[in-house]
Amino acid sequence: MRTKIIIFGLVFLLILVCVVGLTDNKSVVLRMGIWDLTEDNPIHTRAEIWIRGFGSWYLKRALSEGESAKKFGKYPVGVKQKFFFYPESRKGKELIISFMMTEDMNPNGSVRDTLWISFYDEEVEVSGVPITAATGKSELKFKRKKISEDTIVYITKTGKKYHRSSCSYLRRSKISVSLKDACARGYTPCSRCSPPRCK
Fold first, then answer.
1. Tens digits of per-residue pLDDT, 64-80?
2. Are 88 and 44 contacting, i.e. CB atoms less than 8 angstroms apart?
3. With 60 as the cut, is the pLDDT of residue 20 above it?
4. Which residues partner with 142 through β-bridges?
5. Residue ranges of domains in the chain
């Protein structure tokens, strides 16, 4: 009987050590930030980050609401993770980006450890410590959809703005024109859908 109690106690102690060991692993909050450095080719209104377990973060909407950075959940140190990035909406290309949290990061997420997404007219750049830790590169660059004078935008029968195809202002009428033609006729970009700007 005494042997059984000792064995039971040792098994219980072993299980306790294993559970504490598994739950004691350090984890770090992922912090993402956005930079809008565009001039003629604005961020698409449906540009999106999707992270399993946290859902979608629409970047243009976030910026318009004054949210240029966001904290997501905690991730274990030293384990590669991924998120899905749609720079030109889900109708455009899907980018699968790897990131990894490191031992020296602030557990609550800090500016120094932020994963940055920077939009330029011709490319988008993903950078920061979590990217370097996962890929060995300081930044990942991806080409954006090029804007030319032949790019198609849309106008309405009565308005003075031009729009992207998906704009809600196009419910009643939708007339396709080239960007060059829209600009020559004095149309200005819609503030809701942020189409390419006139050069």
1. 888 899 999 999 999 99
2. yes
3. no
4. 124
5. 27-143, 152-189
Angstrom distance (rounded) from CA 63 to CA 194: 13
pLDDT at position 22: 45
44 closest CA partner among 91, 12, 10: 91
**Share of residues in the chain with pLDDT > 90 (%):** 56
Q: What is the mean pLDDT of the chain?
A: 87
Residue 114's SS3 state is coil
DSSP 169: G
CA distances from 177 to 68, 150, 167 (A): 33, 9, 15
What one-character-per-residue DSSP string does 101-144 give?
Answer: B-TTS-TT--GGGPEEEEE-SSEEEEESHHHHHHHS-SEEEEEP
Q: Is 154 exposed, middle or buried (0-12, 13-18, 19+ CB in 10 A)?
A: buried
* pLDDT at 37 > cutoff 60: yes
Strands 161-162 vs 188-189: parallel, antiparallel or unpaired: parallel
Q: Which residue has the tokens 């991730």?
A: 75
CA triple 177-179-183, angle to 5 deg: 105
Residue from 79, 68, 85, 67 nearest 28 by CA: 79
Token pair, residue 71, equals: 């904290």
| Residue 128 pLDDT | 95
Q: Is residue 24 pLDDT above 70, yes or no?
A: no
| 157 contacts: CB under 8 Å, gap ≥ 6 | 172, 173, 175
